[in-house]
Amino acid sequence: MRVQSVLQELKDVNYSVISEYIIRRISEYITESGKNGGIIGLSGGIDSSVTTVLLSKATQNYFILLMPSSSTPQKDMEDAKKIINMIGANNKYKIINIDPILESFKNEIKTNDKLVLGNIKARIRMILLYAYAQIMNYLVIGTGDKSELLLGYFTKYGDGGVDILPIGDLYKTQVRELGRYLGLPEDIVTKPSSPALWEGQTAEGELGVSYDIIDAVLYLRVEKMMDIESIAKELQIDTEIVHKIDRMIKTSQHKRLPPEIFRLSGRAINSDWRYPREWI
């Protein structure tokens, strides 16, 4: 089985059923949480564009923040505006340039490290989303997909700091197909993924592997539970690539879980005792 055959298997799902389910669950979760609606950060990339469209179908009570910085490509802002026009949300969004906020952090911590500053950008956006969410009594709607979540390719307490992840069980390949099903412009559907935390950053460039191979490996490793050597043989790729992706899954586990509570009692939170996620 080669990469494209695996990707085709991934793509062969019913996007009508999936979109209807996600829309219904967003609506239910907002109600169950006692909130009035949802707020979302829209970057103009495929993940946030798809999630924004789904949110707009789930509730009339939504709001969109566009939070560009100096490293945000103009094309991303133009694409974000396309989505806003597409869903008729011209009175439901606000643009906040985060550069002045970032500058105040730079003055305090005195660094130009692009990774440190990039993560601060993601966390500034999280703070703004939660501030508006509190004002409006809305939930913060996350936009991460399954590929990024498994790889840990997100900022802890940044874009990972959200209330729900509606497309978090869809691989990037499937999110692109869902975007196509929802009628998103093709240039957004096929645009290379990038958090744009610094100029020229692309997800595939940073990860060093194409999303086609990443998704094929993740699918066989997580869904089919195949071992590393069998995956490399099946996809006809170097074993080290599979090892690299597997290491990323393992080393990022802490980003997907709540903080560890060291067990001292017989009923430690999360280990032995949990409230139900939904009270109603």
From TrEMBL:
Q: Which Gene Ontology BP terms does the record give? A: NAD+ biosynthetic process
User: What SUPFAM superfamilies does the database record attribute to this sequence?
Assistant: Adenine nucleotide alpha hydrolases-like (SSF52402)
Judged by the first EC level, this protein's enzyme class is ligase
List the pathway annotation: Cofactor biosynthesis; NAD(+) biosynthesis; NAD(+) from deamido-NAD(+) (ammonia route): step 1/1
Q: What does the record give as EC number?
A: 6.3.1.5
User: Could you tell me what reaction this enzyme catalyses?
Assistant: deamido-NAD(+) + NH4(+) + ATP = AMP + diphosphate + NAD(+) + H(+)
Q: Which GO molecular function annotation, any one, does this entry have?
A: ATP binding
Database matches in InterPro entries? NAD/GMP_synthase, NAD_synthase, NH(3)-dep_NAD(+)_synth, Rossmann-like_a/b/a_fold
Q: Which residues bind deamido-NAD(+)?
A: 123, 156, 163, 254-255
Q: Where in the numbering of this chain does the NAD/GMP synthase domain appear?
A: 20-259
* Binding-site residues for ATP, renumbered to this chain: 41-48, 143, 172, 194
Q: Locate the residues binding Mg(2+).
A: 47, 148
List, alphabetically, the Pfam families matched.
NAD_synthase (PF02540)
Taxonomically, which superkingdom?
A: Archaea
The answer to whether keyword Transmembrane helix applies is: no
**Could you give one GO CC term from the UniProt record?**
cytoplasm
Q: According to the UniProt entry, where is the signal peptide?
A: none
Query: How would you summarize the oligomeric state and partners of this protein?
Result: Homodimer.
Similarity-based family: Belongs to the NAD synthetase family.
Q: What does this protein do?
A: Catalyzes the ATP-dependent amidation of deamido-NAD to form NAD. Uses ammonia as a nitrogen source.
NCBIfam families noted in UniProt? nadE (TIGR00552), PRK13980.1 (NF010587)
Q: What is this protein called?
A: NH(3)-dependent NAD(+) synthetase
Q: Which organism is it from?
A: Acidianus ambivalens (Desulfurolobus ambivalens)
The record lists the lineage as: Archaea, Thermoproteota, Thermoprotei, Sulfolobales, Sulfolobaceae
